[in-house]
Write a structure and sequence with these properties.
39% helix, globular, alpha/beta, 7-stranded mixed sheet, binds pyridoxal-5'-phosphate
């Protein structure tokens, strides 16, 4: 077991497992030469609609475009405020800023890492128009509260579901709905390492609202109603046919990929919960967790020593996210922080995500666990 080199994700073993089907799907597109808007794009969108149980899925170029298109389709105007979590990937705050909207940064919950729903209300002003609920690391936000607040204040809810495709949100009556289908519009990314990843860039939007779906489709295609008839200012954001063909193969395995990670997470939970310096990820009562990331909170300022120890033993680990958005230079003049943000900064100093991927073997996981247990004694 020495001389290890364990990555965060192992896309190669997954490809090798599905190689026959995937290669065939790619070759079919090559032969057809329908590289843009080939029939596979529509087929994949239909299959994703069925999987998510939502009427409209509109593919686009990537997950960041999806957020931008969602904001454009909702008709937000410059100066309108949009609530976004401070502990997050850059895409939401970036697209909001790019459109001349004002990102209002809100702190997150220390256990789930998702936006703290109780702080949202304090951050609402007369200009607030939307909330972006980001379902981080595989777990859905507290949509019950968020949708309730949105209803009272007449706000739109955009769900950024790039990291949690397939996760179920558990409604109050016990029914389970797929994350990304609860708000006005959901977005996702098919970046290779995401729960459903293609072999390049890709993304999609999802909604139950036909009019919104039409606007989204139009905006993603230069605001066209028909070729050379531009009704809205749009952009050019498409999912390549080859990527759609690959995704259509992989969608059949999405639940299996997610279940495999859930099983690994159960083992991590069991084996690591006795550590002195480490807290295993917490699960909320209102969401499933597909563990896009398995993220530890390392106490007592020991995060960097743990990461260093793992590195020496050949185990990758990553800090998602090392700098909270309120401290990012790009947004210092534009982001608005109405209420004190503390948790996001604390998490940036204490979180550490460790390898978890559907093809991980028990032996590999045992080595990671053994190394972490050792580290916990030594750091
Ligand atoms: C990856 C990611 C995005 C952006 O997706 P791209 O396809 O890389 O543009 C947006 N939001 C979140 C939360 C992400 O993790």
């Amino acid at each position: 077991m020495e001389g290890k080199n364990i990555p965060m994700v192992d896309l190669r073993s997954q490809y090798h497992r599905l190689k026959g089907e995937i290669d065939e799907a790619i070759l079919t597109v090559n032969e057809s030469t329908a590289f843009i808007n080939g029939p596979q794009v529509k087929e994949f969108a239909t299959h994703l609609e069925e999987y998510l149980e939502i009427p409209f899925v509109i593919p686009c170029g990537n997950g960041t475009d999806a957020l931008q298109i969602a904001l454009m389709a909702l008709g937000l105007r410059p100066g309108d405020e949009v609530i976004v979590p401070a502990f997050n990937y850059v895409a939401a705050v970036e697209t909001v800023t790019l459109l001349g909207l004002v990102p209002v940064l809100v702190d997150v919950d220390p256990w789930t890492f998702n936006i703290n729903p109780w702080q949202i209300e304090q951050c609402i002003s007369r200009r607030t128009r939307a909330i972006i609920a980001v379902h981080l690391f595989g777990q859905a936000c507290d949509m019950g509260i968020i949708l309730g607040i949105a209803k009272s204040y007449h706000l739109y809810v955009i769900e950024d579901n790039a990291q949690s495709l397939g996760t179920g949100y558990i409604c109050e009556d016990g029914t389970v709905k797929k994350a990304g289908t609860l708000g006005h519009v959901g977005t996702t990314s098919f970046f290779p390492s995401k729960p459903l990843g293609c072999y390049g860039d890709g993304g999609a939007l999802m909604t139950s609202d036909r009019r919104l779906a039409d606007r989204i489709r139009m905006i993603a295609s230069h605001g066209q109603t028909e070729k050379y008839h531009h009704k809205l200012v749009g952009c050019n954001s498409r999912l390549d046919t080859i990527q759609a063909a690959i995704l259509d193969v992989k969608l059949k395995y999405l639940d299996e990929f997610n279940d495999n990670r859930i099983k690994l997470a159960v083992r991590y939970d069991e084996m690591l919960s006795s550590c002195k310096h480490i807290e295993v990820p917490q699960k909320s009562t209102f969401s499933q967790h597909i563990f896009h990331q398995y993220t530890l909170v390392v106490k007592d300022g020991k995060r960097d020593s743990l990461q260093q120890y793992l590195k020496e033993k050949g185990v990758a680990s990553t800090v998602y996210y090392p700098i909270p958005l309120q401290d990012q230079e790009a947004f210092k003049d534009t982001a608005f922080i109405p209420y004190k943000i503390k948790v996001a900064g604390d998490l940036s100093k204490s979180v550490l995500s460790i390898p978890i991927y559907s093809e991980m073997t028990v032996e590999t996981q045992d080595y990671i666990i053994k190394t972490i247990l050792e580290a916990d004694q030594k750091i």
